[in-house]
Specification:
This protein is 62% helix and 0% strand. By secondary structure, the chain is mainly α. The radius of gyration is 23 Å and the shape is globular.
């Protein structure tokens, strides 16, 4: 729904179904709010679910196409020659072209910048330029980051600003300049305004700074430079709803009430089962969909020998995020690719591999990385080249696709998913996506449909060559500086 809010920000026009003084969240999709609960919206621009700041990151991409008409209704019209399902063809042709443009460039652009920031973090870790490039390519193409780069989910911008905050965090400890701490907290604060669970990274970093101050007997004012922008972000987060909704009991909240989320509401067995599922379940497990992250079982010990306290910091990111989301009923993320709640942790699980690359046998490491990395590329390619949500999952309540496994034979159907989709390889979305990619592919590559194979693959090959050249130039420049 955030993209709908972003569209309204650009056009400054309300939704046709919006009624002043009556409409509430999901007014245009009543199935998500059947009892019409919640406060009344104060305006038709922000009367949608999602963060205002998340929509702000999407608005520039929508505005580009809205004002310059790069993609129009006539640019590409799909037919049953492109996709066998006529209902799917109708839906795709009825999409708003401004949103189509945003979906095409928003995720890939922000993800590319994220990979660049990850590369700079690797250099801050004092990894060699060669190993930093290897880690960056693994991060970009062999983890679920590649799959999510083809989406406009809020994990994409949140991941960028989280890594940007961590980069400035590292620079602060290198240069001992508080301006980097201000930039770090400002980036983390904006990431928090996009996704509130970024607080699971902010708190450990605050404790890390506090522990460093105590250890080195330093001045405590550095902690204030880190805290002030974050406090401002928190109060902004609390204040924004008063601008979006009319005053009511539903908009009231207790200051600091978010801390109640850190108290477990589920049984220990549920939390442990969910934690295992988030990492290893065939249908959603992070290590299944991104096998290269299995290297953390030897890379973290190697990294611990090099940077003990930072290794503990990275481990705390995983621990807090894992147990926080394992406590939720929908810990599996429903029909998302792999464990969508763990996307933000991925770069911090891969980062320690740089220590192993510089310490262990290079031939053995090459075999391990090549094998696990190749598997990750194939796994995530199966999501990138096709619409898994439609052709693998189908639609909620239908009797086809993986959703169909959750529909009872008799009685009222539910919209939930069957446990065998999560816990078995036979019905895993990964298995079915790979099978469909090789046996019945209906590719969903917009530019390939638009330009045809000759022009598209020429552009793709040129882009790959330019990218390799760019990395080679960066490597040469950095080696000369060393």
């Amino acid at each position: 729904m955030a993209e709908e809010m972003a569209l309204r920000m650009v056009t400054m026009e309300t939704h046709p179904d919006y009624v002043e003084g009556e409409s509430k969240i999901f007014f245009n999709l009543p199935i998500h709010n059947p009892h019409n609960l919640g406060p009344i919206c104060s305006n038709g621009i922000t009367c949608f679910a999602g963060s205002v700041f998340y929509s702000i990151t999407q608005a520039p991409f929508i505005a580009i196409n809205h004002h310059f008409s790069i993609i129009t209704d006539d640019t590409l019209v799909f037919s049953t020659n492109d996709f066998a399902d006529a209902h799917y063809v109708f839906w795709r042709n009825s999409e708003n072209v401004d949103l189509v443009f945003m979906e095409l460039f928003y995720g890939p652009f922000l993800s590319a910048v994220t990979v660049g920031v990850f590369f700079l973090i690797c250099l801050e870790q004092k990894f060699t330029c060669k190993n930093s490039i290897i880690l960056s390519f693994l991060f970009a193409f062999s983890t679920i980051i590649w799959a999510y780069s083809n989406t406009s989910l809020n994990t994409v911008p949140a991941g960028l600003f989280l890594l940007l905050g961590y980069l400035f965090f590292k620079k602060f400890f290198r240069f001992k300049q508080n301006r980097f701490l201000l930039l770090s907290s400002a980036s983390l604060g904006f990431a928090f305004l996009i996704r509130t669970d970024v607080i699971l990274f902010i708190i450990p970093m605050w404790l890390f700074i506090f522990g460093t101050i105590l250890k080195r007997n330093s001045k405590i004012h550095s902690l204030f430079f880190y805290s002030i922008p974050l406090i401002f972000s928190y109060f902004t987060h609390k204040f924004i709803p008063s601008l979006r909704f009319l005053p009511s009991e539903d908009t009231g909240s207790v200051m600091g009430g978010e801390l109640t989320a850190f108290t477990f509401g589920s049984s220990l067995s549920h939390i442990l089962t969910s934690s295992f599922g988030l990492l290893f379940a065939p249908g959603v497990g992070l290590f299944v969909f991104s096998p290269i992250l299995l290297t953390m079982f030897f890379s973290f010990p190697d990294f611990f020998k090099k940077c003990k306290y930072e290794c503990l910091l990275l481990a705390s990111f995983l621990g807090m995020t894992l147990f926080f989301h394992a406590d939720l009923r929908d810990w599996h993320g429903l029909v998302a690719w792999s464990s969508r709640y763990l996307v933000l942790v991925v770069p911090f699980l891969l980062l320690p591999l740089g220590a192993s690359l510089e310490k262990r046998n290079k031939k053995l490491m090459f075999v391990i990385i090549l094998t696990l990395g190749f598997l990750g590329v194939i796994f995530n390619l199966s999501y990138v080249v096709q619409d898994v949500s439609w052709f693998v999952w189908s639609t909620p309540g239908s009797h086809t696709g993986l959703f169909g496994l959750g529909v009872p034979a008799y009685g009222q159907f539910n919209l939930w998913i069957n446990d065998i989709v999560i816990w078995t390889f036979q019905y895993s979305q990964l298995t079915h996506s790979i099978s469909l990619m090789f046996e019945g592919l209906q590719h969903d590559i917009y530019l390939l449909h638009l330009f045809g194979p000759v022009i598209y693959f020429s552009i793709l090959l040129t882009s790959i060559i330019f990218g390799i050249y760019l990395f080679w130039r960066i490597k040469s420049i950095l080696e000369k500086q060393d």
